[in-house]
Amino acid sequence: MHAPRSESDSRTDVIYLDNNATTCVAPEVFEAMVPFLTEYYGNPSSAYGFGKLVEGHITQAREKVAALLGATAKEIIFTSCGTESDNMAIWSALQTTGKRHVVTTQVEHSAIMNQTEQLERMGFGVTRLPVAADGTLSLADVENAIRDDTAIVSIMWANNETGVLFPVEEIAGIVRKKRAEYTKANPDNKGPFFHTDAVQTPGKIDLSHVAKSDIDFLSLSGHKLHAPKGVGVLYVKRRTKVVPYVIGGGQERGKRGGTENVASIIGLGRAAELALERLSEEQTRVRALRDRFEEALLKRLPYLYINGKRDQRLPNTSNIAFDFVEAEAILFRLWDKRICASSGSACTTGSLDPSHVLVAMGLTPARARSCVRFSFSHFTRDADIEYALEVIPPMIEELRAMSPLGPDHTDNFNYDVEAAREKEEKLMAATMAAIND
Ligand code: PLP
Predict the structure, then answer these.
(1) Average pLDDT over the chain, rounded to whole?
(2) pLDDT of the residue at 353
(3) Which helix (H) or strand (E) holds 277?
C-alpha cells in the first residue's frame, strides 16, 4: 500500500483528496508547456516569425479548448482565471444590455457571490435563488425570477462543495425563451443572457454539446483540469456581444487586454485534450472509487450524511457530515496523516462561518460545521482510498469520544437551535486545545 506516514516524509508525498480545490499539473501538460518557457518566448503579438510561431500554438490551444465544448476557436477567450471569466460575463452583460438586474443562486462560488454583492452596493438588483435540501434548484423559481430588466442569469453547472449538478442547458433554454419574448415586445430590449460557471466540470461530465445549447457564456479554469493555475477561459457563444473586462491592448481579438500567459494557455490546450480522452474513465473508475469510499464510511460509522442529491452529482465529489465533530478538527488530524481534504471551498477556508452552500441547503450551523469535502481525480489511486478508509473511522470515533455532543444532542444537528452555536464554539476551542497539546 502506498503510505507516506511520517513527519519526515516529503511534503509532496500526500494523499491528495482535494481535487475540487486544485489539481496537479499532468505530466503531458507540463511537457507541452516547457518549450514556451524556454525556447519559444516570443510575444504572440509581434509581427515577426518568432512571435507568429507562438501565436500559431495559441491558436491550436484555442481549438483544443473549443473542441471540449463542441465550439469554434472564435468563441474562446483566454483569461487569467475562473474568477475573471465569471466577473467578465456578468459585467459584460450589464454593459451590453444596459440593464440593472442579475439572477443567480445562493450557492455560487465566491467569484460570483462577492461580485454580485459588490453590484448590489453599486445599486444593481440581484435575485439569489434558494436550493432544496438536496441542493437542487427549481426551474419554476428561475423562470419566475427573470424580469424585463434582467441582464443575465448566472447559475453554476456543478457546485464546488457538494458536486450537485444544475440542469443548465434547460435553464439556458428558459432564458432564451424569455429573451425572445422581451425582444419581440421591444426590439431594443436585448437581454437576458445566460452564463454558467462550469469551472468544476471539464473531464467529469460531457461538455461537447455546449455550443449547440442556449448557453451564452461559460467559464473554465485551468487549475481544475490538470493545467496550471493562473489561466482561465470564457466561452462566448457566436454573435453574442461581449465587452472587455480587462482593458488594454488588442489581445484576444480586442476582448481581453494583456499579453497572453503563453505557456499556461498551451498547457490548458493539452489539458482540454486529456479531459476529453479521460472523460469515460472519470465517469466510471473515479465514480466507482467515490462510491466505494462513501459506502464503506456509511457502513462503518453512524451519524454520517452525504450532502447533495446522490444521483445528480459530479462523479468525483463527496461531501460528508460527520455529526458531533468539527470539520476543522478532522482536517487537522487528516493532515497529520498526510491526507488533504477540505471544508467549504478553498477560497473561504479560514472563515469560522459555516459554508453558505450547506446553510442554503438547510443544514443547521452545527451540522454544516461538521462537513468535509473529499474530491478525487484521474491521479487518485485505489491505495489512496484504502488508506483514507483505514484512517478516517477510528479518527472520527476518537474525536466523537472527546466531544461533549453525541446522540443525546441530535437536536443540535437536526434543528436550527441558536444555543447550539455557543456550545459548538466551546467544543471547537476544546478540540483545538486538545490537538495543540
Ligand atoms: N468557480 C468555481 C465553481 C470554483 O470552484 C472556482 C475555484 O475554486 C472558481 C470559480 C474560481 O476559479 P479560479 O481559482 O481559477 O479563479
Answers:
(1) 92
(2) 81
(3) helix 262-277
pTM attached to this predicted model: 0.91
Question: How far is it, in rounded angstroms, from Cα 200 to Cα 175?
Answer: 22
Nearest to 2 by CA among 11, 15, 19, 12: 15
Question: C-alpha cell of 134?
Answer: 438536496
Give the atom of ligand 1 at the shortest distance from the alpha carbon of 108: 3
Nearest one of 153, 148, 156, 140 to 193, comparing CA atoms: 153
Q: Is 56 exposed, middle or buried (0-12, 13-18, 19+ CB in 10 A)?
A: exposed
Average pLDDT over residues 32-54: 98
Q: Which residues does the annotation mark as catalytic? A: 347
First to last CA, the chain: 31
Strands, E assignment, 229-333: 232-236, 304-306, 317-322
How distant is the alpha carbon of residue 415 from its chain centre?
A: 29
Q: Tell me how far the alpha carbon of residue 391 is from its chain's centroid.
A: 27
For 163-188, what is the mean pLDDT? 96
Residue among 229, 347, 357, 373 whose CB has most ligand 1 atoms within 8 A, to mutate: 347
Ligand 1 pocket test, candidate residues 160, 162, 218, most atoms within 8 A of CB: 160
- Among 86, 113, 343, 342, which residue's Cα sits nearest to residue 221? 86
**Cβ neighbour number for residue 348 with a 10 Å cutoff:** 17
Confidence bin at 417 (pLDDT 50/70/90): very low
Nearest to 202 by CA among 221, 229, 216: 221
Residues in the chain: 437
12 neighbors 21 (Cβ within 8 angstroms): no
Q: How far apart are CA 34 and CA 31, in angstroms?
A: 6
Q: Which amino acid is at 245?
A: Y
**Cβ(320)–Cβ(163) below 8 Å:** no
* Residue bearing the CA closest to ligand 1, atom 5: 160
Question: Which of helix, strand or coil describes residue 24?
Answer: coil
- Partners of 217 in the β-ladder: 195, 236
User: Is the distance from CB of 197 to CB of 82 less than 8 angstroms?
Assistant: yes
Pocket around ligand 1: residues whose beta carbon is below 6 Å from it? 81-83, 86, 109, 111, 156, 160, 197, 199-200, 221, 223, 232, 345-347
- Helix pair 262-277, 49-68: axis angle to 10 deg: 30
**Cell numbers standing for residue 3:** 503510505
Please provide residue 302's backbone torsions phi and psi, each rounded to the nearest 5 degrees. -80, 175
Contact assessment for residue 222 and residue 270, using Cβ atoms and an 8 Å cutoff = no
Q: What is the residue with the minimal CA distance to atom 13 of ligand 1?
A: 82
